[in-house]
Amino acid sequence: MTGVRPAGRIGIAVAAGMLKGAYGHGVLSAFEERGLRAHVYGTASSSALSGGLAAVGRARQTGVEYWLGAAEAAESQGMSSVVLDSIKQYGPVLREGLFRPSAPEFLLATGKVTNAVAAELTQGAGAKTLGKQLLRNVFTGDRSWVEENLATVVFSSRAEVGEGPRLTPDNYDAAAYASTRMLHAWQVPAEIDGEAYVDASYTCSCPAREVAARGVDVLIAIGCDPFPLFRDLYASEEIVDGSVLDGARVSVIKPDEDLKNLGVDYAAATAAGLGKAYGLGLDAGHRFADGNAGLCGPAGSDEAAP
Q1: pLDDT at residue 3 in the model
Q2: Could you tell me whether strands 105-113 and 150-156 are parallel, antiparallel, or unpaired per DSSP bridges?
Q3: Integer Rg of the chain from CA
Q4: What value does the mean pLDDT take over residues 238-266?
Q5: d(CA 28, CA 188)
Q6: Which of 82, 159, 222, 304 is the Cys-Cys partner for 24 at CB 3.0 to 4.6 Å?
Q7: pLDDT of 57-98, one tens digit each?
Q8: Cα–Cα dist 122/184, whole Å
């Protein structure tokens, strides 16, 4: 390892995956150990927590413990409570760290509901039924409802006037919850500034394109499944390892096997399985760092933020 960083800018996009996100958290923890920190972190849904912790240099410190607690709580409390409790627990450190002048840019993707009729449906008693139908549509490739009623909105901690919405300490909690709200399982509606939002995954579960657009030279996209990594639930755009996206060279990191085989599914996981998934992520992150030493700073360093 050289301990000297290149002049180019680094971006990391972390895909959603609910409890399977323990794998991506492991990758980010390894990066932190190796001094590989990005200038831009892009997150969506469940990766908002792990990506946010990475952006403030706390991914390894938190480790798999968050995911163990989330999995346990999911069985008894429901997913809305799990997310709201995690925001309550980790929100203070993220609100304090993400908005420092020296912090890297942090992107948080959401799905904005674009009309009043759909907003009433997503925020009301019909949300669960709609959510189940949208999941069934994944298998048929039917994106019609999503295209007609949702729009990707990406909040940025560095957004300037005219660039899109700015993520701030004041709206962070609402945006972080809204980004996770899958309609089939989250009972508490999501609003930001009085407008209806749903989980980012319907339109943008991995904001690789948005990270690339921030002028990075290297884009690391982290997935949680061994299958092709796509932009959204409906596989509208594949994020391809070795490709070039808006001028950024893309590297994809993902597990070699379905984490379900280890006991980690999207909404349920065993403690042993989460430990294994996190460990696989750690190993993958270290292997990537071994092969890309020029992207790393001194071990454990906080270099890389602008």
Answers
A1: 38
A2: antiparallel
A3: 18
A4: 97
A5: 29
A6: 222
A7: 999 999 999 999 999 998 888 889 999 999 999 999 999 999
A8: 10
Beta strands in the chain (DSSP E): 10-14, 40-44, 105-113, 150-156, 191-192, 195-198, 218-222, 244-245, 248-253
pTM over 0.90: yes
User: Residue 59 and residue 42: Cα distance in Å, rounded?
Assistant: 15
The gap between the terminal CA atoms of the chain, to the nearest Å, is 21
DSSP, collapsed to helix, strand or coil, labels residue 264 as strand
Domains of the chain: 10-291 (3.40.1090)
Q: How far is CA 153 from the centre of its chain?
A: 14
- pLDDT, tens digit, 9 for 90 and up, residues 194-245: 999 999 999 999 999 999 999 999 999 999 999 999 999 999 999 999 999 9
Largest CA distance in the chain: 57
| 200 CB neighbour count, 10 Å cutoff | 34
Long-range contacts of 157-165 (CB under 8 A, 24+ apart): 157/98, 157/99, 157/103, 157/105, 157/106, 157/107, 158/105, 158/106
- In 3D, which of 77, 47, 67 has the Cα closest to residue 272? 67
Q: How many of the other CB atoms lie within 10 Å of CB of 300?
A: 11
Q: What are phi and psi of 220, to 5 degrees?
A: -105, 115
Residue in this structure with the two tokens 């957004």, named with its chain if needed: 159
Task: Report the C-alpha gap between 132 and 140 in whole angstroms.
Answer: 13
Structure confidence by residue, pLDDT tens digits, 113-150: 999 999 999 999 999 999 999 999 999 999 999 999 99
CB-count exposure of residue 117 (10 Å: 0-12, 13-18, 19+): exposed
